[in-house]
Amino acid sequence: MTQPKQQSSTESSNIKAISIIGIVFFMLGFMTWLNSTLIPFLKLTCQLKNDVQAFFVTFAFYLGYFFLAIPSSILIKKTGYKKGLALAWLVIAVGSFIFIPASHARSFPLFLTGLFIQSTGMSLLQTAVNPYISIIGPIESAAKRISIMGICNKVAAIISPVILGAILLHNASALETSINLTTDPVVKEGLLAELASRIVTPYIVLTTVLVLLAVFMWFAPLPEIDTDKEDAPAPGALRKTAKTSVFQYPHLLLGVLCIFLYVGVEVMAGDAIGTYGKTMGLPLDKTKYFGSFTMACMLLGYIIGIITIPKILSQQAGLKISAILGIIFSFGAFVSHGYTAIAFIALFGLANALMWPAIFPLAISGLGKFTKTGSALLIMGIVGGGLFPLLYSYLKDTVHVANNVSFFVCALPCYIYILFYSISGYKAGKAGNQPSVGQGGFEITATEEALPG
Questions:
Q1: Please, are residues 139 and 442 in contact by the beta-carbon 8 Å criterion?
Q2: How far apart are CA 424 and CA 403, in angstroms?
Q3: Which residues, at least 6 apart from 377, have a Cβ–Cβ distance to it below 8 Å?
Q4: CA–CA dist 7, 12 (Å, integer)
Q5: Peptide bond into 310 cis (omega under 30)
Q6: Torsion angle, CA of 441/447/450/453, rounded to 10 degrees?
Q7: 426, containing H or E segment
Q8: How far apart are CA 188 and CA 190, in angstroms?
Q9: Burial bucket for residue 104 (CB in 10 Å: 0-12, 13-18, 19+)
Q10: How far apart are CA 426 and CA 51, in angstroms?
Q11: For residue 447, what pLDDT is reported?
């Protein structure tokens, strides 16, 4: 009689934890996809010469993931997941606050500094929250839970460019024309100062919300998960793999590269879609909302994931289908023009939606006590989001490769590799029959009795 009560209590605790983590993913999406608005705004406000300079916004924002992921995993081992989440929001708040003096000085380096500090907090946040939502339930349904989190994330991602775009880029085309045509330096400086001041109020509000969120997380009823003790044998047919280093898991290392390429093409589709449209001559008043189209397609993809995984599709099958769709949409964008091309790039969101929910649990499965470190390595791969938009703009503006060719060259190889990982990469290094992975990260011999129901 005691066991059902304990199980009911655990399930209730998990539901409460998932709801709280949903708030984290909502704000994570809101913060991440503000960049699609900041790129054209800062290009105009700071009078940047080309898109290569403008895309240093994404580079600075994602750079912290590379440098801070491993230190973040070490910090989380000391603080635990819950306190790590609270500290992460405080760091992000500091980065957001820096936007206020940066706007007064109209200093692009200071804006980039704020973005980098934000990314250090984001790195800590991602290192804590992704393994947490993966491990809090059965690993075979982790993609479904992450898809639910993805809906929270992408609803915020749709909203944030619309809200910030309406504030920062209101009447943007006319203002851009006025600034470009003004020859009087005093008048021009006044117009730029007025434009820069638009960012102050939103970021005061945002900083306040982030501080309150940090306090909420500190006291939130989130259960701790001790992954460092997950390798202890349990009764039954469990067999523990004798590993001494996280680098002895090939499926993880291939997964890090997969995350690197996936995030690179995802950020291109979300943040560079407006630049792609503007390069084709579409007005800024239209292109400032294009990022929301990509996010809407991702939202649709997450809903599909919740319905289909794991009952209809396995995580790896969902990843395989997503990669094939990415290849098809890459060719579609390459051969089309105008709003048709924009539609294909927006559809990248549909192709990308199930990738993170599938890649992350596939890559950390079976890591046991190395889960936090493995998660940190995967988080380091997020730096791809800062490099691929830069590569696209460099090919387009500096090498003078055609706009559609530049995008195609960056996107297609990513989807081809992701397809490889979905077929065989995720199994690399797993001896014998493909093992099934239990919640604790142990390998279970893939007999008929051991396979998930």
A1: no
A2: 33
A3: 69, 70, 246, 252, 253, 256
A4: 9
A5: yes
A6: 110
A7: none
A8: 5
A9: middle
A10: 36
A11: 25
Q: What is the total residue count of the chain?
A: 453
Select from 224, 203, 210 the least CA-distant residue to 84.
Answer: 224
Cα angle for residues 105, 110, 114 (degrees, 5° grid)? 125
User: Per DSSP, what are the bridge partners of residue 283?
Assistant: none
Q: Which fold has domain 10-222+245-429?
A: Growth Hormone; Chain: A; (1.20.1250)
The kind and range of the H/E element at 238 are strand 238-239
Measured CA to CA, the distance from residue 195 to residue 168 in angstroms comes to 7
**What is the dihedral sign for C-alpha 146, 152, 155, 156?**
negative
Burial zone of 140 (CB within 10 Å; 0-12 exposed, 13-18 middle, 19+ buried): buried
Per-residue pLDDT at 431: 59
Burial readout 40-52 (b: 16 or more C-beta within 10 A, e: otherwise): bbbbbbbebeebb
Q: Which residues of the chain fall below pLDDT 50?
A: 1-2, 230-241, 432-453
The Cα–Cα gap between 334 and 31 comes to 30
Cα gap 212→93, rounded to integer Å? 10
Q: What is the enclosing helix (H) or strand (E) of 436? A: strand 436-437
Instruction: Output the CA torsion sign for 8, 441, 362, 311.
Output: negative
| Distances in whole angstroms, Cα of residue 416 to Cα of each of 146, 282, 345 | 23, 30, 17
3-class secondary structure for 21-38?
HHHHHHHHHHHHCCHHHH
Q: What is the CA radius of gyration of the chain?
A: 22
Tell me which amino acid residue 172 is: A
Cα distance between the two ends of the chain: 25
pTM: 0.81
Structure tokens at 117: 């500090």
CA angle centred on 367, ends 306 and 385, rounded to 5°: 60
CB 347 within 8 A of CB 333: no
Domain locations in the chain? 10-222+245-429
Largest CA-CA distance found in the chain, in angstroms, rounded: 82
Q: Name which of 258, 259, 260, 265 is nearest 421 in CA terms.
A: 258
**DSSP state, residue 241:** -
Instruction: Give the DSSP letter of residue 365.
Output: T
The pLDDT value given to residue 351: 96
The sheet with strand 443-444 has its strands ordered as: 238-239, 443-444, 436-437
Q: What is d(CA 34, CA 57) in angstroms, rounded to the nearest whole number?
A: 10
pLDDT (0 to 100) of residue 139: 64
Query: Rounded CA gap, 275 and 53, in Å?
Result: 13
